[in-house]
Structure formats: structure tokens, C-alpha cells
Give the backbone structure.
Amino acid sequence: MNNYDNYPDTCPPVTGKIGPKGKFGGRKYLYFAGNNYLDLARRPELINAATEASKKYGTSSGAGRTTTGTSDLHLELEEVLAEFKGTEDALIYPSGYLGNQIMLSGILQEDDVLVYDEWAHTSITEALPRTPNRAVEFAHNDMEELHEVVNSADQGVVLVNGVDPILGELAPLDRILEVVDGRDFRVLVDDAHGTGVLGRNGRGTPEHFGLSSDKILQTEVMSKALGSHGGFIASSRKLIDKLRVVSNTYRGSTPLPPSVTAASIAAVKIVMDEPELREKVKENAAYLVDQLTARRVDADWSGSAIVRLDISEEAARGLHDHLQNDMIIAPYTHYPTLDSPGRLRITVSARHSKEDVDCLVNSVTEYLRE
């Protein structure tokens, strides 16, 4: 018998499928955490596809994509992703964290300046030292400072989170495009938390803003709203072909195993066929904010699956413990680094009921009243 009470992390380990409710340390909790925004990770279609693929192909691709590791499943997934995104081609890789390294290896020019938001995800900031290009940070969503930096450079790339992973804020891509208009700058959007949730077709933050500029590039994942694993880039065939050749990160990585690849194919098809899942996420987030606001709790929501509470770090830590005692998981975390202020991260999924949300609201307001 495991002694989960002594587990060192802030939440007990997962001991069952994750959905609106989940088992942690063998006990059932309401789950307002994680990234399973459309509740696809426990869908029978994904589970059955993964099982059948394992039976047919085994558990591993057994080699890299540049030798003998490409399967017909990999090719099908890339074709389905290109259809989903409305692009010519797509490239998949085993971890979404690798996407910005892969993209930069193919788009950077010698004199490019890399301009990144101070709250950029670590997959962005850790990709920067791999390049010899000059990197400049600008204050979070500060368009005036971004304008000054861009005007001081001849060319480059602006790197931002499409959706802030903790607060749910959206990068103001429309305003960023105005800043770089007429200049030799592109905008790289790490859209891990936008894909599948934002936009009419679930294509992410640019679609949410109605943008289709060729200056915008996206790196995306299948490990969040799509309920599977891995990352992808969907773009022109010219860029995808180049990335396959020049990216050592891509070339040196063992590709997604058959089970994950098949599950991802099933997930993308669901996202295209069931837009009501996105609408339900928005409905649940709006309902949560309305209920909290009605009880004088300062809450905000920008359109993603993430809801922000404007409370102190001390209150966030205490609220995490209080919720867990009430059998509700909503983690206290530091982002983007351990030096960042601690915050409570609350997310909703397409399958949360209003009763689930009411339980969360009651527990939050009970604690904050105290």
C-alpha cells in the first residue's frame, strides 16, 4: 500500500483518469486544474485508437524520422493536422516543449533580434541561448516598450505566449502586428493553451483575433486541449520541408509512439467535428467568473479555459490548502520561474457541470470570507 500522505508535491499523485473529477492518492476530487480543457484525455475514441495502434505497431517507433522511424500513422497525423489548421503541411515532434527550438532553427536569419515577453514560457527562453542572435526582453504586454525595441532593430522575431499558462491572459496579437507593421519582423506565438480552445475552428489565438498574417507563426501542442501528447507546427510546405532538414532537435528525436500518434489523430478529428466542446469551455468559464463576481471575489477571464483570481500570494497558498481539504484540486504554483509570485491556477473543462462550478465557488468564497 502506497503512503500518499507523505508525497512531497503540493497535490497527491494521480491514481485514475483525469476529467472534471479525478482520483489523487486513491481519493476522488473535483478537478479544476491541468490542461485537459476539452476532456478528451479519457474519451473512448482516443483510448481505443491508442490500444489498437499498440496491438498493431507495438510500443515504439524504434528509430528516428530520418531513418526508418516514420510510420503511416505519423503521416496521417500530419495530414489531419494540416487539414485542421488549413495549411499545406504539418510537422510533429515528441514534446511540445521542443517546438520553439525547432521553429527558430528554421526561421532565424543572421541579423535577427529576438524580442521576447518577460513572461514568456521557459520553452521560449531556453530556446534563445541556442542561437547566437541578440535577445531583448520587453515588459509583459507593454506595447510601448515593444515599439521602442522593434524600432531600434532592423529585423527579428517577437516571441510571446498566445495564452498565459497561469493567468489566462491573451497576447494582444492585433496590437503586436501593428507594432511590427512595415518592419522586417515576424511574430512567433507559443499557442500551447490556445489551440483547440480559441477561435471559431479551435486554431488558436491568431484565429481568435481574426488574424491571418504571414508574419505570424505558431508552435502548438497535442498535450493540452487535444488530450494526447507531443507538439506540432502547421505551415507552408516550404517551411515544413526546411525544418525537417535543418532542425537537429527534430532529426535527433525519437518520434511519437504509435499509441500516442493514433490517439492524437482521433483527438484532432473530434476537435474539428465537435465545436460545441469549445463553447462549453467558454460557458463554464463565464459562469464561474459571474458567480465569483456576484460574491465580490475579484475574478477575470479573457476567453481561454483559465480563470484568474486577483488575490495575494499568501491567500493563494492558503486557498490551495483549503480547496484540497474540501476535495477540490486547484494548484498553487510559481510561473514562469520559482522566483515568480505564487498564484492559484484555476481551469475549467468542457465537461464540468454547473454543480461542479458551484462547489468550487462555495469553497473559494468560504475561505476568502475567513
In short: Residues 97 and 297 are 34 Å apart (CA to CA). The longest strand covers residues 155-161. The mean pLDDT is 95. Residues 276-294 form the longest helix (19 residues).
